[in-house]
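Q: I'm writing up a methods section and want to include an example of the input and output format. Could you take the sequence below and give the corresponding predicted structure tokens, formatted cleanly so I can copy it straight into the document?
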Amino acid sequence: MISSNEYGSHSWELLVTVDHQHEEVQKEFLLQVTGDLHIGGLMLKLVEQIKISQDWSDYAFWWEQKKCWLLKTHWTLDKCGVQADAKLFFTTQHKMLRLRLPNMKTVKLKVSFSSVVFRAVSDICKILNIRRSEELSLMKQSEGTLKKKKKKDKNSKEPATEDILNLCNSPVSAGLSGSPGLYSKTMTPTYDPISGTPASSTITWFSDSPLTEQNCSILAFSHPNCSPETLAEMYQPRTLADKAKLNAGWLDSSRSLMEQGILEDDQLLLRFKYYTFFDLNPKYDAVRINQIYEQARWAILLEEIDCTEEEMLIFAALQALSKLSLSSEAQDFTCESEADEVEAALSNLEVTLEGGNSNNILEDITDIPKLADNLRLVRPRKLSLKAIKPYWFVFKDTSISYFKNQESAQGEPIEKLNLKGCEAVPDVNVAAKKFGIKLLIPVADGMNEVYLRCENENQYAQWMAACILASKGKTMADSSYHPEVHKILSFLKMKNWTMSPQTVSDPESTDMKPECFISPRYTKKYKSKQLVARILEAHQNVSQMTLVEAKLRFIQAWQSLPEFGLSYYIVRFKGSKKDDLLGVSYNRLIRIDIATGDPITTWRFSNMKQWNVNWEIRQVAIEFDQNVSIAFTCLSADCKIIHEYIGGYIFLSTRSKDQNETLDEDLFHKLTGGQE
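A: Here is the clean output for your methods example:
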């Protein structure tokens, strides 16, 4: 019998399980410890007992019952709260993970299971050569998709072997510290002028990226579309409530993968979570642009976002461009001229963030332009036809006033509409020469609906751009007004196609499956030949584009859709007896009627004073200017997800091009973490 003096009266036994691959060596060890032993000392004691000569530097203690890592090696067992009943697991911090990328390719790589998800995603993006990792995050597949997959697996006799890109040998993947992955803005990049993919000399700008030229091509190129059968299997008609379920799977960015129940070799989705694609540059972002394009493409094909038939044909034509241009002779482009074209397209594409610095402050102060023209006003009336009347409209600052005619414009207006915080929705059919703007203007008891009808494309583009800026509290003097007008006109131009008989006379001669480019809802309406003819017809307006420009145009057109950037959640507002839908966007929150899909109220982040979460009742409370406050509980997901979305968008609005690529991670966690 051993006397208590021999071990000391305060010592006790601690069971530790070691995760190693040596079958002949035991895995469970009983260590005699004291409460003042620090974690580093416990590691040393354990490794001495294991007696296996190997590199243990990536190992750490995982506390199974508490679901947490013990990473602070200077903390004592007492400080960590570890007692004799604790079961510690000594395991590697970097483990294998399968990631499904936006282009539906699966990559296998080693990821830190002990770092918070925000940092793990940053490491993953270095491996994949994607800048601006803060725009992405990891999510679990939605339950509906998994159930559908299980049902399909039961029916199929042979298991499908998936083509997985293995990137496990990367320095970051192996747990080694890599370089920060920055590129030099003084470099002259060389890249393929047709695809926009960096040449081999520029692939290694992220010097710790393991991407070979072949792997980079897999991630930066759009590959042949999936078969119509695969698309039909993936597609499911979605109500607004179904769309809300798609956003329930986001992981918590301030906790590690292991803490959220993710196991080694699990599959997660890597997706763009925040729809603010900052500093997008074809010279450096071949992989990033392609993955954004693919996420947009699948969202449209699977009808996760709604678009009109006319818009669907434009998206189909831009997708078909890669197939048609690859089958025809390669065009001869010079790098210099193409770079200029792409940058011009890019300048239209970049999202102007709230609170961005104006380039011409003096002009903004001294000269605020105004619009004045004849437009038609449409007011929806219940139980009767819409009333359509022509008026003289004047757009000044962020308000629209309308008068009986131009002569009476010096007097008092019939009505003045303040557009701050409004929703401006396109109501356009180019073929039918219909150019309408649907304005949903916030009033005390909800939203006031007003339609404006313009005469032509130019008038529509000017007034629509002014409405979009006014909704954000900006005037036409803002530097983003003219790019916005140009962006709207270029999108209308793509829609305004004319039939070219010599090109589309024989749709059968084109080897194209329209079902690969158009969502199942529209393929059911037309025969295959009709769709091919209509896609080729729409293709006339985009046929001169290069592949990288077509992708940028596709992203730009996606950004023009009314529902772009909205992530839906089912919530119950405080004091309400029914469920509502909450749409979270990069600059606002929208309360939506779950039955009709109509917006009820909009709240802008720019008017937000503070927001917090009552973790006991899982309620998000937000205060806005003018004593407006709201509170709601989230029913379709954890309230932490919405809290993180709001904080994340506010964090992203602080970015500027003057900064380098390093991010203030502490600020991100301060804005998104909450005090749980």
